[in-house]
Amino acid sequence: MLAIYDMADHESEKLLYQGRYSEILALSVDSLDFQPGPENLPHVVAALALLGRTEEAGGLYHAYIQTLPPKAALVTRFFYALAVCRERRMPAARALFVENLKRARELVQRFAHEGAPIPEMERVKFYAAQGLAFLRYNMGYMRQAEFWSRKALTSATASSFQYGSCLAHELYGHVQLQLGHVNAGMINLKLAREKASRLGQGALTQTFDAAQRLYRATYGLCSHADEILAELNEALGRCKYEDAYTKAALQIQLARILTLTGDLREATALLEKASALVYRVDNPYLETIYNLGLAHVQMLEGNYSIALSIARNAESRARDRSYMPSVLKSLGLQSQILERMGMGAEHRAVIRDMKALTAKSGSFISQRIQSRSEYMSASCRRGEDPLGDLIDDVHFHKRDIIADIFAKGWLTFLHQVLGVTPQQNLIVFDLQPGSLTLFSRGHIVHRAEGCSALIKKLLLALKDGRELSKEEITHCLWAQPYHPARHDPLIYTLIARTRKLLQPYARWIEVTEQGYRLEEGVSLRNGRVVASTSKDPEPPFGLSPPSAADPQPEAVESPGWEDYRAQLNVRQIEILDIAQTLEKIQPRNMARRFKVSDATITRDLSRLVELGTLQRFGSGRSTYYQTLNP
Question: What predicted TM-score, i.e. pTM, was given to this entire model?
Answer without folding.
Answer: 0.75
